[in-house]
Amino acid sequence: MKNFLIFMGILSVIVGIPLIKKVTTDSTKEVNVVATEMRAIQTAVLASGRLAHEDQVRLTTEVIAKVKQVLVKEGDFVSKNQLLLVLDDETFKATVEQRQAAVRMQKIDIEKQQIQLRKYERQWQRKKRLHEQKLLDDDAFDEFTSQLELARINVKSATESLRQTKALLSQAEDQLKKTRVLSPINGKVTSLDIKEGETAIASTTNIAGSSLMTIADPDSMLTEVFVDEADVADIKVGQPAKIVAIAYPDNHIDAEVKSIATSARTVSGRQGLSFLVKLKILSSEEIQLKPGMSCRAEIFTNSTQPVRSLPIKSIISQEVRSENIIKHHVFIIEDGVARKIPIETGISDDSYQQILSKLDKDAQVVSGPDRILRHLKDGETVNVVEAE
Predict the structure, then answer these.
(1) What are the contacts of 77-83 at 24+ separation with CB within 8 A?
(2) pLDDT per residue over 33-63, tens digit each?
(3) Domain 44-53+219-303, what fold?
């Protein structure tokens, strides 16, 4: 019996020591630490939008006619006043010839009226002398005078009719001219929306045939983003920005604010009102940007001198609903123990936040792992390890 008790005691010591060590080891949490550092912080406004051409023209027709000939292809470079497309002009030529004939007829009518007027003027001179000699009564003279005035009015009427007919001719010639579509700018055909044989339709709606083609200056590429009305007050023309096209997520494009809309608008898929902000692209040689590409932008609204900062992941925020405030704190390491320290914070960017409170520049601030930091308590024992 005595030997059994001695055996159990030795067994308890052998098993108990590792268990005690395990419990002690498990109570010590392994953490990563950082120190405060001086760095410039740039505050930014995030926005999304699309790439577009500033100098872009969507060509439509003002006359209804069948497309006779298309002289360009999508992707072609064109120059100003270059012939791009020809519409069937037979009907318009016939109308012009008809108006030209009407002008000639009207001129003939004026000549006839003028001859008639000169005839009445000569007769009126003779009637006047007879009237002065009392050989023609007043009624007859007045009647002839009225005929003379009527002849003058007929000349004026024919002259106005000629002017009206010339206006109709000018209108017909203008419509005939519009059957030949010329490029209004130097640029590139970015879309060709109609084919030979289709009918071009004069319309402002997006029905088939209303759009002929789109021409844009490839050097006028910019980014149009929508900024929430709560952030637009911080944006100024000339501020730097970074753009990332969704098609090129690893390429950051330098840009700057070119213009800010003066009025807000409602944007589909967004709550509240937004302002259209145009960003001028400064450099994009490495990638081929195309209009319509979705993109996101980071507009830098403020840049500070170097300030004492910590990574945002090391700062813990807690909302105090009773006081309607948010308090911040960090954990620093003192003699292998985590100590909770309240702090005041300033401006921040995506990764770092300014620390307004006084912290020893050599203080070891717990920065992770996140699964440990979220549940870390004041006074817990920790072991500092390097971040993986």
Answers:
(1) 77/187, 77/188, 77/189, 78/183, 78/186, 78/187, 78/188, 78/189, 78/215, 79/183, 79/186, 80/183, 80/184, 80/185, 80/186, 81/182, 81/183, 82/182, 82/183, 83/180, 83/181, 83/182
(2) 888 888 877 778 888 899 988 888 888 888 8
(3) Elongation Factor Tu (Ef-tu); domain 3 (2.40.30)
